[in-house]
Structure formats: structure tokens, C-alpha cells
Amino acid sequence: MMGFFFSLMSHHKAVPTCFVFFFLLSCTCFTSTEAYDALDPNGNITIKWDIISWTPDGYVAVVTMNNFQQYRHIAAPGWSMGWTWAKKEVIWSMMGGQTTEQGDCSKFKGNPPHCCKKDPTVVDLLPGTPYNQQIANCCKGGVLSSWAQDPTNAVASFQVSVGRAGTTNRTVKVPKNFTLKAPGPGYTCGPAKIVPPTKFIQSDKRRVTQALMTWNVTCTYSQFLAQKTPTCCVSLSSFYNDTIVPCPTCACGCQSNSSCVNANTPHLASVVAGKNNFSPLVQCTSHMCPVRVHWHVKLNYKEYWRVKVTVTNFNYRMNYSEWNLVVQHPNFDNLTQLFSFNYKSLTPYGDINDTAMLWGVKFYNDFLNEAGPNGNVQSELLFRKDKSTFTFEKGWAFPRRIYFNGDNCVMPPPDAYPWLPNAGSQKEVSLLVLVLAYLVSLLFYACA
């Protein structure tokens, strides 16, 4: 792309300076919308269909959803899965799940099918469903834990009896156009691929059976598809500087009359209970983020240093259950003690241990309440100093990035970090900032 630009400059001497500016701006400021996550490169949700028996006009299959994402879970009101039938299939019955609509089944006499839609949407059943309608790993209300947090609850299943379909491996056609909502957008599913049949070990551990036919669907997440604006931001402070670095202004959008409410608003409860309880209603702040993570460098010992982490919920309509943080910092390889949070080391870069997953203790602080006096959780981390790498200079004590519930939080600009007192009052200005400032001046001069 840059080669094309310089070729264009060499052949067209009179290219306006404003074009040069906007080209360079597009190369430096826009972010890719790919679903790849550097901290969880292999994370995905895999949907597996196993045909376990044939019927006179179709088959019975068990559909299993595995959340292989390390730190991204699916919260209430849960997942919904959709697809398009390849032929004129119908769903005669289901266990462990149900379709949201039955569709037009007027052509069938007697007992109608469970669903006749060409593009059904399936949801999980709720806890407390009668046992005769359950199968293993069902009936969680669509909630799926992340793989690192709770792998036993990162699986969901339902059974479906399909009619008007093929009755052999050669005549069955796999569904198309799979979709997954959790509960909103964000996931993109690939095509179904036929794979070797799944093998099942029986309870006596002495016999192995296998599915008659199996296909897999892989779904990946993109934060850019999930929401138009970020969902969290990070603020910073330290014991060696009185400056508290706030979240960037308008980090998650700017204030408007319909998007936020002040904490002292009269009749706040009635405002929060508005028409749509699922739409976010955040407290009016400069950053307008539903969640803020504050990292405070608290104490400095001879051989250790201590950090306090506080997560604050500014959303009046959202309780975050089974929340988690992912923090990247070079000193996590020397984490000594953690207070009131669970911890697991993530190693997305092989042997480099600089990424940690933190989440609440069950029945204690794993539930982050909606905005208000109790809408926060906090913990302290104790790190051992590594004399070969440890320093408080140039923002080393602050994290490189933070995720909340799998979404990348907006960090303050590096030149705004709290500096040591002997670092001087004048901060370095990056070369990129100087170049952009120069181009802006040229733009106004050339395009005036």
C-alpha cells in the first residue's frame, strides 16, 4: 500500500497536501476489524453435530457447543443459535433446548412438528426444566462460562430429531449459514465441515461407540462487530504522584440526554426501570463507559511492591455475573500474593508469563452489582521485584492492556501516565504527534 502511495507521488507531482494528510492518517489511525485476539489466539466456540441414530425420515442428533475461549463467557439472557436447512427439513422434537418459533406447520396432519421454519433459532432451556426434557449439559438459561474460569460449565448441549432429511451419510445435507448470538452480535460462524465421527467411551470404560456422522462449525468473536463503542476504560494513579490519570474523555461515547443519568437524579429508580431494561443506562461521566478499571500503585517495599485494582460498574441496568479481568504486565511472572480475587496465568506467547486472568471468589465478589454504592469490587496484588527489570520509570508499573469480560478496555495515552517526581515536568512528545501536527498545519495552508 505504501509502495502504491510513493508511486503515485512520483507520477503526480501536484498531489494536494490534504490528500497526503488523509492518506497518512488512514494508515495510522484506523484499526483492523479482524476477530483475531492476540491474548487468546486459539479461542473460539465450536458447535458439533453428532448423528446418533437414523429415523424413518431423518435422524436424531446431539448438538454440543464448547466455549474454548479462555476468558470470554456468555452471560444471561444467554446464547441463541440459528442456521438454514439445506433441504426441506423439519424438527419433530427437541430435548434440552427449544426453537423460538414454530413456523407454519399447517401441511402436517396429527401432531405437528416442533418447528417447520427454514431458518430456526434455538435457545437453551431454563434451570428447573423437568428431567424428562433434559440431556447432559443443558438447561443453564444459555449461560456459558469461559474455559479458563470454569471448563465444566463451558459446554452446552441439546438433542434434535430432524425429519424430511436424508437417512444415510450420503443423503444427509449439512445445514448452512450458522449464526450465534451471545445474546447480541459479535460472533461470526464459518461453514459446517464434515469431520471424523465422534467416539464415545461408555460408562464401564470398556466399550467405545461412535457417531454415525459428525460435522463441526467454528465461531469466532470480534469486539468491533459486538458494539459500536468500547465497553470499558482504565484509569491510573500511584503513591509517588498526586496526579490521578482518568479514563480518556468520551472513551465509550459522549454524553447525551438519552444515554446517561446523574446519580442524584430525582426518582432514579423509575428512570432506570424504563421501557427497555436491556439497553444500557450509564451514569453521566466524562468517559461514559459502563465499566471502569482503576490501577493504583499503592506501596513500595524493599523487595516487593503492591497494587490495588478496583472495578466500578457505572451501568444502572446491568449486574455482571462471573465477571473477569485479563491484565498484561511484565511482572506477573513474579506475582507473590493475591487478595480476594482468583488468579490464573495465561501464556499466549509460549513461555512468556506476562498475562493474568483475575475473577471474583464464588459467592463473595463474583457478582458485580449495578451502578451505585455497592457497584464495585477490589483487590490487591503483591509483586516481588526483579532487580534486573524492575523500575517505576516511564510507566513500567502500569499494565500494557486490560480486558473486562473479554473486551479490550481503552487505556490512557502513555504520555499521561503518572511520572516519578525526578522525571521532570516536561514530557517527551512522540515523533508521530509532531508529524501529524506538521501535516495538519500544511493541510490548512494548502486547502484554504
TrEMBL record:
The lineage of its organism: Eukaryota, Viridiplantae, Streptophyta, Embryophyta, Tracheophyta. It is found in: Cell membrane. One of its GO terms (biological process) is plant-type cell wall cellulose biosynthetic process. The keyword Transmembrane helix applies. One of its GO terms (cellular component) is side of membrane. The chain crosses the membrane at residues 429-447. It comes from Arachis duranensis (Wild peanut). Residues 1-35 form the signal peptide. It is a lipid-anchor; GPI-anchor. Keywords: Glycoprotein, GPI-anchor, Lipoprotein, Membrane, Signal, Transmembrane, Transmembrane helix. The keyword Transmembrane helix applies. It comes from the Eukaryota. Residues 231-418 form the COBRA C-terminal domain. The gene is LOC107486582. This is COBRA-like protein. Belongs to the COBRA family.
